[in-house]
Amino acid sequence: MSVDNYVDEKAFRDCVEKAAKILRAEELVAFPTETVYGLGANGLSTRAVQKIFTAKGRPSDNPLILHIGSLAQLGPLLREPISVYAEKLIEHFWPGPLTLIFPASDRVPSVVTGGLDTVAVRMPAHRLAREIIAKAGVPIAAPSANRSGKPSPTRAEHVREDLDGRVAAIIDGGSTGYGLESTVVDVSNREASPRILRPGGITEEGIEETLGVSISMEGSERKKDNVRAPGMKYRHYSPDTDVELVEGSSAVMQARIDEARMHGKRAAAAITSDRADKISADRILVLGDGTDLQTISSHLYDHLRAVDKMDVDVLFVQTFTETGLGKAIMNRLYKAANP
């Protein structure tokens, strides 16, 4: 099934109806969101959700995010009323690329929570995703629609590369917007300030401004058990090609490339446009304008996937300042370089 920029409203509606029907039948549908493509299943059905883990090759103790289409779907998923902080975050950032961690009700299957007492919930802003969820009539469990550990898919063709034949339907809604997964914030403790568990399109600075308090960011080296958010425990975002991060000038990058070549390796470089004429490598991937982190984030996974088709041994990637969206970009790059 394919939707082309929603030009044909009838085709759009037909696509929504077919996707919802498949989800109600407890099968899998890959669909676009404003972050990355998601692999959706009926989030209240253990049988349906287990198919996600099988299709992705995903460890079963890795929690999933439940996607809702309206606030009416939130209450039944929660064990207790939400906090004032959660209310503010919902008001300012939903629908959008923000996932919140709440105490889970008994209605949420343990296969969704990874055996934890909390549940991750998001209300996507993407029209197609919201319409599918509404039509299905249930919250949709939907991790990224890729084989576990690989770079997340931002286009339908990425999904086909990883999951063709493993899912009932792949809906082509074009390229996603943010290109990185949602920010995950833990609001499960009503007596404590929220914590960012995973950086994403909603920045730490934006959250602090909204709440009027300082918040903590979960460290990348925390103990990897009982993690409350997806994308924290296992190998993520990694191409098959080795990835090495390079902090510093173009000269530093060139020295690393030259050293790799001296050892017989073919090297690619992922750099911003201002460095494109300063670097010599076997392949060059231009990430975008260094001042436009939104564009860089939206194409990051595309580049990480493309390098595996370039007949190179190593990809050198320049680093970014870890403020604003740069924090989310570097979070993904650190994981890609340290599988």
From TrEMBL:
The UniProt record lists the keyword Nucleus: no
Enzyme class: transferase
Domain of life the protein comes from: Bacteria
Keywords associated with the record: ATP-binding, Cytoplasm, Nucleotide-binding, Nucleotidyltransferase, Transferase, tRNA processing
Principal location class: cytoplasm
One term under GO cellular component: cytoplasm
Positions of ATP binding: 58, 62, 118, 144, 152, 198, 237
Function of the molecule: Required for the formation of a threonylcarbamoyl group on adenosine at position 37 (t(6)A37) in tRNAs that read codons beginning with adenine.
Family assignment from sequence similarity: Belongs to the SUA5 family.
Name of protein: Threonylcarbamoyl-AMP synthase
Lineage: Bacteria, Bacillati, Bacillota, Bacilli, Bacillales
